[in-house]
Structures
1.
Amino acid sequence: MNKTGHDAVSSTAPADKDFRTLQAQFALKGHQLHRTEGAKPELFCTRWRLVKHLDDLDHARRFLEQIGGGQ
């Protein structure tokens, strides 16, 4: 709780929800979506020991469309 007695809402909550949604959609297509921790998190997708670096969530969405997901 913050000083006003209300729960503080994290500014990363929408981005985290978007990431978790994409992660589930990737899983439905047999891929794993990962995100590193730190000041500038990085995204990457894996399948069959292959790794694809993704610049941001928009890039992840475009790649998901390429593999037939996210519709």
Note: Residues 37-71 form one domain.
2.
Amino acid sequence: MAQEQQRQHCANGVCWLGKEDGVAKRASAAPTAPDLDRSVRYLTEFRKQLVAFLDELIQQFPSETDLIVARIFIKDRANVEDLMGRFIRDILPHRERVQQRDSSFFLEHSLLYSDAATDKVDHFQALWKSQRLDEQDRETVWRWMDVFVRIAHRYLTQFGYVPGWEPKPTAVFS
């Protein structure tokens, strides 16, 4: 089996080991203050955009109390690193499906709930399948997904996986 080639990259005094896939892998050197500032800016922007997305959904569907609860949780309670880490690990690998506007994506993946009860996940999926979303509404949701994918991808390429949210290893059977 061929060994993956790694190169060391440095910018602004921060070095990391990068693979050919473009994902940053932090080296043992501690990140500098400017690097942390950029990381925090990406995380803050990700949360801000998630809240704006939920605000738009709430405006469209004011009787959907689960959306209000999700907004409060994401804005005030959720650890933004966990939000970003989960999105990068679980959603970002499917970015081609987002680009292709593959509707089955929303039926197979939870956007707003990670460890929530299944009925909360099913609720968003039911909303997606319902006639309550017209084609323009669906395209708006896709555009929001484009924003989240863009922010998460930039974070991943610059800072690597959020610690504790690395991809789960897959078993190889022969």
Note: Residues 44-159 form one domain.
